[in-house]
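hi! just following up on the protien thing from before. the input was this:
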Amino acid sequence: MSAFRIPSLRVGRVRPLGPQAVPSAIDKSEVQGPVHAGPLGLEGDEQGDRRHHGGPDKAIHAYASAHYPAWAAELPEAARHFRPGAFGENLVVDGATEATICLGDRWRIGTASLEVSQSRQPCWKLNLRFERPDMALRVQASGRTGWYFRVLEPGVISAGDTARLIHRPHPDWPLARILRLLYRDTLDRDALASLAALPGIPANWQRLLRRRLESAAVEDWNSRLQTPS
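and the predicted 3d structure came back as:
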């Protein structure tokens, strides 16, 4: 797989989310025309919590359009929600999923050069977004998480652009394999050590992998997955 298409480009401003009015920019609107992609993401895009969202390693969020029908079939009562932009994505991706995207992939989209930096770690704001207390856990368990790009070379991206693969340094590490390691085969020491040794691993992942290797235990996911009371 050496190309995919971007049928929709989206940015969002920080707004209140849920009954407690949590600041969030997960509700993103479609953009017509070219948008500049810089080191911190798309022009006009915001994050409600800069400690856990955004930054160079989470500059641009992508989500596979192939997942929307799967979610609608799994949760028919909420089918109306599963449309482009549902998961707070900046790039709606047609023609690629976590099974065909690899960590470290470098892609040319428009005039920008982007690198796959990590898969998304779902958080409780998805519970508020979809009005389901278990939505973040469902996303994690499904492997339909989406992924993040860091921006290597700033440039302009437009809806309708085709992404072209420039370089694939880690073909043995599709994101689907990483998601299995993070959330299913959680204490596979050989795989954890191999992943930790890859160049370009974000600092937060390095810390997570080292803790698992040193403690032989899995970190507590509750604070990330469960909506605060």
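The two ends are 43 Å apart (CA to CA).
The mean pLDDT is 95.
cheers
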